[in-house]
Design brief:
The protein is of the alpha+beta class. The strands form 2 sheets. The protein has a 5-stranded mixed β-sheet, with no helix packed on it. The protein is 36% helix and 14% strand. The radius of gyration is 31 Å and the shape is globular. It folds into 4 domains: 72 residues, no CATH class; 68 residues, Muramoyl-pentapeptide Carboxypeptidase, domain 1, CATH 1.10.101; 68 residues, Muramoyl-pentapeptide Carboxypeptidase, domain 1, CATH 1.10.101; 121 residues, L,D-transpeptidase catalytic domain-like, CATH 2.40.440. The N and C termini lie far apart (97 Å). The chain has 12 helices and 9 strands.
Length: 381
């Protein structure tokens, strides 16, 4: 016979306490109500028989209640430090935990966004599917435990600034490019934050104007014009023309051996072997510049093409990260002529995914204004 618990005394605990095995999640929705009713009925019976006091009753009920509630789906996959909470995120989920998911996918170069949100959208699902494919998992687009573990291994914990979309990113184009700084100064003048000369010098006045612009749009003060601060600026200002910034076309002292197809009409002539690009009008070379092409494993297509699309502020999102392509001139699918900061910084150590790149922002802007959709581009060895 089990001794009765005297009021105010702790209950007697058996030497081998009864433990409840956690139910699988897929059965919880069906069994939780029945299990809860059974537990409460048993406790009520013990109370009626005087076998449990009220405090002991509360102590007996608490572990069961906590165990049941902790097994319920929560609003995210991880607590601080990455501890599993057993949540599944999928398309159209809305939760602060989606922010962490997106930030980690971005860090792993699987999701090309600069702002994260609580919304699990189609882009997020596509990034999850890509992660699952690369990790050898079932491509469901649903973030379950194996998917989350694979992501944890490929990413860093996001900072509070990253989750709040106030982290400072990389320059959209580096201030080492005078042509870009001139355009930046002109745009900052349009929003009444810069009154100095349009001279291409990234001086204290220009830095202060950049910082003031960032604060105006709700970002932390910084002299860095990253994409998050540049994108609103280009939306609210007009793109100055080349003649607004420069007094003459780019100087040209190089030479290039032209393909026969380049001697008639208006054409951009690109030689992969010579690593050069020319703009030619009726056989007269207007400028020649160094050019860079595809990295190993990729190819820059050869042949005669027509420009089909142009955009001065293109950002590539194809390869899981955001890569600025200012003054992009598309002539074959996603292949374009454009300015490349990576080419400016690293020279021929790197390469494109097929594009023909320039490393002078001024030249890229000038060429962009000379050509039109339908003009020819010839790429040859």
């Amino acid at each position: 016979m089990v001794p009765r618990c005297a009021l105010g005394q702790p209950p007697i605990v058996p030497a081998r306490p009864l433990s409840l095995r956690p139910l699988p999640l897929r059965f919880l929705s069906l069994r939780f109500s029945a299990a809860s009713a059974l537990v409460h009925a048993s406790v009520a019976f013990l109370l009626a028989g005087g076998l449990l006091t009220a405090p002991a009753c509360a102590a007996a009920l608490q572990p069961v209640s906590m165990q049941m509630s902790s097994a319920q789906p929560t609003s995210g996959l991880t607590e601080a430090g990455g501890a599993l909470v057993q949540e599944v995120l999928r398309l159209r989920s809305r939760s602060p935990r989606v922010r962490e998911l997106q930030a980690r996918l971005r860090n792993a170069k699987l999701l090309a966004v600069y702002d994260v949100s609580d919304h699990f959208d189609a882009l997020t699902r596509a990034a999850v599917v890509k992660l699952q494919r690369e990790a050898g998992l079932r491509e469901s687009g649903v973030v379950d435990r194996p998917t989350w573990d694979a992501l944890l291994a490929r990413s860093q914990p996001p900072t509070a600034a990253e989750l709040g979309n106030v982290d400072i990113g990389a320059w959209f184009t580096a201030p080492s490019q005078p042509g870009y700084v001139k355009e930046l100064q002109h745009r900052l003048r349009q929003v009444k934050l810069y009154q100095g000369p349009i001279d291409g010098h990234f001086d204290a006045a220009t830095q202060q104007a950049v910082s003031a612009w960032r604060q105006r749009i709700g970002l932390p003060a910084s002299e860095v014009m990253d994409e998050r601060s540049w994108a609103p600026l280009i939306r609210r200002t007009r793109n100055p023309r080349y003649v607004d910034l420069f007094e003459a076309p780019p100087a040209s002292t190089m030479t290039q051996e032209l393909d026969p197809r380049c001697v008639t009409g208006k054409v951009v002539c690109i030689s992969k072997q010579q690593r050069k690009m020319s703009y030619v009008v009726d056989g007269q070379v207007r400028f020649v510049r160094e050019a860079r092409f595809a990295r190993p494993g990729w190819e820059s297509p050869e042949g005669e093409f027509r420009i089909w699309y142009m955009n001065s502020d293109t950002v590539s999102k194809i390869f899981g990260e955001r890569t600025p392509m200012p003054y992009a001139i598309f002539y074959q699918g996603n292949v374009a002529i454009h300015f490349s900061q990576d080419f400016a910084d690293k020279g021929y150590e790197g390469g494109s995914h097929g594009c023909s790149q320039l490393r002078d922002y001024q030249v890229a802007k000038w060429l962009y204004e000379q050509v039109r959709v339908g003009d020819r581009v010839v790429v040859y060895q």
